[in-house]
Specification:
The complex is a heterotrimer.
Chain A lengths: L2 E8 L3 E4 H7 L4 H8 L3 E4 L6 H16 L6 E7 L10 H9 L6 E5 L5 H14 L5 E9 L14 E9 L5 E13 L2 E2 L8 E2 L5 H20 L8 E4 L5 H10 L3 H5 L4 H4 L6 H12 L5 E5 L4 E11 L3 H4 L6 H6 L3 E2 L2 H7 L8
Parallel strand pairs in A: 2-14, 4-5, 4-6, 11-12
Antiparallel strand pairs in A: 1-7, 1-8, 2-3, 6-7, 8-13, 9-10, 12-13
Helix pairs in contact in A: 1-2, 3-4, 6-7
Chain B lengths: L3 H5 L2 H6 L1 E5 L5 E2 L14 E5 L3 E10 L12 E8 L4 E7 L11 E11 L6 E9 L1
Parallel strand pairs in B: 6-8
Antiparallel strand pairs in B: 1-2, 1-3, 4-5, 4-7, 5-6, 7-8
Chain C lengths: L3 E8 L10 H16 L6 E5 L3 H5 L4 H9 L6 E4 L5 H14 L5 E9 L6 H6 L14 H16 L3 H15 L13 H5 L3 E3 L2 E2 L8 E10 H4 L7 E10 L14 H14 L8 E3 L5 H10 L8 H6 L17 H5 L3 H16 L13 E8 L4 E8 L2
Parallel strand pairs in C: 2-3, 2-4, 9-10
Antiparallel strand pairs in C: 1-7, 1-8, 4-7, 5-6, 8-11, 10-11
Helix pairs in contact in C: 1-3, 4-14, 7-11
The chains are: A alpha/beta, B mainly beta, C alpha/beta.
Chain lengths: 348, 130, 383
Amino acid sequence: MIGIVGYGAYLPRYRIKAETIAQQWGSDPESIKRGLLLNEKTVPGQDEDTITISVEAAKNALKRARINPQEIGAVYIGSESHPYAVKPSGATLVDALGIGPHVHVASYEFACKAGSEAMYVAYSHVKAGEMKYALGIGADTSQGAPGDALEYSASAGGAAFIMGKENVIAEILFTHSFTTDTPDFWRREGEFYPRHAGRFTGEPAYFKHILGAGRALLEKSKLSPKDFKYAVFHMPNGKFPQEVGKKLGFTKEQLETGWIVPWMGNTYSGSSPTGLAAILDEAKPGDLIFMVSFGSGAGSDGFILKATDELPKVQNLAPKVRDLLNNNKIYLNYGEYAKFRKKIKVNE
Amino acid sequence: MKNVARYHREIPQRYRLEAGKCTNCGYIAFPPRLICPKCKSKKFETIRLSDEGKILTYTIIRVSAEQFSKQTPFAVGIIELNDGVRLTTQIVDTDLNNIEIGKKVKIVFRKVQEDGKAGILCYGYKAVLV
Amino acid sequence: MREVVVIGAGMTKFGELWNKSIRDIFVEAALKAIEDAGVDYIDSMYIGSMSPGLFTEQEHIGALMADYLGITPVPATRVESACASGGAAFRQAFLEVASGASNIVLAGGVEKMTDAEDVTAALATAADQEYEVYQGITFPGLYALIARAHMHQYGTTRKQLAEVAVKNHRNGAKNPNAQFGFEVTLENVVNSTMVADPLRLLDCSPVTDGAAAVIVASAEVAKNIKKDFVRVIASAQASDTIALHSRESFTKLGSVVKAAEKAYRMAGIKPKDVNLVEVHDCFTIAEIVVSEDLGFFEKGKGGEAVEQGLTSIEGGKIPINTSGGLKSKGHPVGATGIAQIIEVYEQLLGKSGARQVKNARIGMTQNMGGSGASCVIHILEVK
């Protein structure tokens, strides 16, 4: 059996409400909350970035996996906000957690699907018998340009998954990836904020790729949506995942547990992985889980997982996503938010 | 520019709280030392410190060196970890009025300094209230 | 050891001396001391300075000052012990004369702080750079950690801290060399800007330019030069851990306790025999803690003592910081230890004017570096 042996999430404590942002730009808070189904989003502290978020998420994954960190053979961090343009985020993480130095490390980038990519490669290494354990992480501290629609969603957080063969808590049964050149969202080298193609990000991008990977997965597995207890999709806002789920044949109830975006925002590479972590917090042995990520540019990675008898033993060994989401929140006003996110010009 | 070698050599202590435990008298040196201040032994084993502790004393820095001037006001305290070792660290992610002597904290991994816009990022430990 | 005496003193006014360089101020103080002593040569020179490199980008100031004082090839050495550099320089001069190696030695101190870009960062190098300062702590912050612990453990109050500032400004108002020679009220102190809770701006010594110098000589030689001099009856120094967090207690300064024990033993006196003391009040809490650790008050009672006026010039018990202290007189770090010697020297010779302590016969100086990792104590006596 091959799959997840430990998982962990991390979300910063800071929040900003959708209405706080809307008021700043003279927009109608209610129409944004209704249109995008977003209430508030996480904001990283001034001392947090993709590396620190990855370390905290991986710490939680290690608590659940209960393994010697030295046995981890690969560490992959997927993010569109790696703190360095050149220098691997994972190198800092392995030294912080006592992994390695005999370890393979890489930074991945594929807009919002870099996290599932890291999971996919980590899983493949273990499946190939290359190593005992591999760690895949999706984490981001995404930036939306001030006044842009993305500012309501771009948030911070991440989830980490340790793949292995012993004491598997969620077996990975099937995977599938789907990729085309679709320029719906991008950030050129040296630019601070990303650009997006407006409504083009919907049907030809998000929906086409998730449906492409999702339908292929169902075909491959010969399973139908009703066989699943849970489903989670990339969550750029509240609405898209609900619509894509419906198109694939999933019900609102199946989506509910992993649908954390209204209170978390879009954690980009951490989005569907953190949704999956929220599902693993609740799932019972035998439950089937359907997950499809989406990354602009564009592509999707899909996974079908099955919770094992080991899962209940580890669920309480580290903080659950809902607790991270609901507890110890510190709300920021727009000025504090602008300072935290370095949107104010200062003398260096 | 910060000297990279100087930052690099402190990584084991700052990233994962590595300390030296005297194999003769049990004294824990953080950061590690070459000679035990208690029994003068020179034999140590490497251990990792507990990541939980309590606040012994604290202050709120309102006027800082340039490096930290965008972060003021921020709290710095002396923390006693569960294994008895004490260290000086920032206490973050809290309303500053919530900090009190005796309160329990947990050590987290954070960015501590930045060398301008183009230099290295410097990471290490900080504390958050439990 | 030979008997060692101080035969002359000189200092600049302390303050923001925008038009004067580090060499200008040192030479000014040194010349005054040489003229005051009436000597026509010196055998060597020690200069206490914490960080001319960080403050003014000038190291090697021993030779620089010998050059500008026009005394080359006299040996000249900079002595560094953070804010205790001045006291340490005086101690080197004392030891050199006591040993018989030299007869007349100049002990000076200088700091030109207003030339620095980031004074807070420069001063912070006196703490553990990798394990305290890396986290953003400052010197006001370190003493705030001590203050918070002292208040928590002994019930020392915000008002008692303020009383130190009020008393020292009252004394400093009578000192023409003081940087902030004006009085402040309790209200001024407790309403001043917060710097590092619970310490406010008026709990802190200022950023200061200044220099001070004294001439140390063997008693033998002094007799032929000058009639009025004071004897150095104790010189003691002690160290402690560089990081505050490494100490068993944050409310007791071990280096002060140890140096004081040695100094009292060497002088053959007890705390009650001391008529006045200049202590290192870089922050108000420091004066309270040091007044306890020098044995003038029971541990934890230093706050009450200042509140009751026991440390004022007329207070009866022990006048502390008659000069105004670092708080009011100013704190050009390397010069401070020498300026403390000058205050006691002048007090013992009855030259202190409006702030004169009556019948002062024995005076003490306590100079410290960092959060107390270095402490230098001297005891002076006039016959």
